[in-house]
Amino acid sequence: MTLSRVKVGVVGLGLVGDSHIRAYQAHPKAEVAAVCDLDAARAEAVAASYQIPRWYTSYEEMLADPGINTIEITTPTLLHAPMATAAARAGKNILCEKPFCLTLAEGEAACAAAAAHGVTLAVGESYIFMTPIMKARALIEAGEIGRPLQVRQRFGSWIERPGALETARPITADHRGWRMDSSRAGGAGFPWMFDHCVHFFATAEYLMKDTRIGEVYSLRSDISWMNARDGGSGHAGMYRPENAGDIPIIAWSYDDPACQGVWMRAEALTGKYDPMFGFSVSVIGETGMIEVLGEGGRGLNWQGQDVHLVLHRQGKDTLTFRFDEGGDEIWQSEVSYYSRAHLNQIHEFVAALTSGGAPRYLGADGLRDVRTTMAAICSAREGVPVKVRDVTDRRFEA
After folding, report:
1. Which helix (H) or strand (E) holds 226?
2. What does each of the 398 residues of the chain score in pLDDT, given as a tens digit?
3. How far is 281 from 62, CA to CA, in rounded Å?
4. Using alpha carbons only, how large is the chain's radius of gyration in Å?
5. φ/ψ of residue 129, rounded to 5
6. In DSSP terms, which residues pair with 132 in a beta bridge?
7. Which residues contact 193 (CB under 8 A, 6 or more apart)?
């Protein structure tokens, strides 16, 4: 069903909520009709701040609102798929934050409900909507590096911008700490990996022109020495990786056997130093190479200049690109992620709903990247490569 106007209800008013509300309000064919949060004071304050006409503390009541045709889910992960299923049954279109689901079964149920009720179910995979990443894909599509054959991802420290979270609605451990709790964030003991790897795998497939990942192999390391060094103080606070260990390296092969990828993590949270900050990617092709910054990224330099993307081409001059989009709301970064990637993603979603098209990243895509993330965690626990197709809820939860 094509909408003339997207009238959205946003449920969950944590860290990302403001970016999403502003993105809808910036689109001429969208409006935020209501917000919902268990914290009544928070819901009322957000509604007042953004001049949103209605606010709820009951998700069920918001679903019954006839003035809403679309639901945006930005709650903790354990609520994603159940809330998506309920929204589909209520006849609402859905944009659900990542990771899409805690289990494959609940993700499949949400996708089935959306199909049965004829609504659109998209998942908020914002990494593939970062301007530098989209430019990298466009250059690959244009043949600038020939056939892409290898993806190398690098993950360094995210550095918060001073005062970025000191707002009238402070983001406390209650709002952020759930990400380190597997009962709410998933991951079977690896919540950070579960929360973030969907980003990394989605990007790895996007920059390989949608070639799918077939098998993953994760290396696990012991970081208990950090507790001893810190005297048990918890060097990284609530963002400390799993107490028992970390996954610093993941390698994978694609369904196309000529293609492969690797992700490497070295940052303060794991006691390692890397002068490159945030997420960055290199894509190696037959005739060239692209280096590009992602979330929280800075430190990419070419001939003394800070840049966002470098295009190396065999027998041709190297080209560089910058995308100055006003900086990032949260990170000390060369890339506008919270400010721009979420806006790009939401505007693409609104455009799809109002044109009768399909968003780029649907529930099935979110489900696939959750399965690939599960394969990476299974590999770390079992010490063997794991084929994505062989992952089941039972194996993951064992």
Report:
1. helix 224-229
2. 799 999 999 999 988 889 999 999 999 999 999 999 999 999 999 999 999 999 999 999 999 999 999 999 999 999 999 999 999 999 999 999 999 999 999 999 999 999 999 999 999 999 999 999 999 999 999 999 999 999 999 999 999 888 776 554 555 555 566 677 787 778 888 888 999 999 999 999 999 999 999 999 999 988 777 766 654 434 344 445 444 468 999 999 999 999 999 999 999 888 889 999 999 999 999 999 999 999 999 999 999 999 999 999 999 999 999 999 988 988 999 999 998 999 999 999 999 999 999 999 999 999 999 999 999 999 999 999 999 999 999 999 98
3. 40
4. 21
5. -115, 10
6. none
7. 187, 242, 247, 373, 376, 377, 380
Q: What residue spans of 90-127 are helical by DSSP H? A: 104-117
Neighbour-count burial of 225, counting CB atoms closer than 10 A to its CB (0-12 exposed, 13-18 middle, 19+ buried): exposed
Which residue, 37, 34, 44, is CA-closest to 69?
Answer: 34
Distance CA 308, CA 290 (A): 11
**Dihedral (C-alpha) 193, 198, 199, 203: value to the nearest 10 degrees?**
130
d(CA 374, CA 17): 27
Q: Which pair of structure tokens corresponds to residue 23?
A: 């993105």
Number of H helices, E strands in the chain: 13, 17
Give the C-alpha separation, 153 to 192, whole Å. Answer: 17
The dihedral over CA atoms of 360, 365, 370, 371, expressed in degrees to the nearest 10, equals -150
Choose among 176, 154, 131, 122: nearest CA to 338: 131
Measured CA to CA, the distance from residue 92 to residue 94 in angstroms comes to 6
- Give me the residue label for tokens 């009322």: 44
Longest dimension (CA), the chain: 62
Backbone angles phi, psi at 84, to 5 degrees: -65, -40
Burial readout 236-248 (b: 16 or more C-beta within 10 A, e: otherwise): beeebbbeebbbb
**Domains (range + CATH), the chain:** 6-126 (3.40.50.720), 128-336+360-397 (3.30.360.10)
Is this prediction's pTM over 0.90? yes
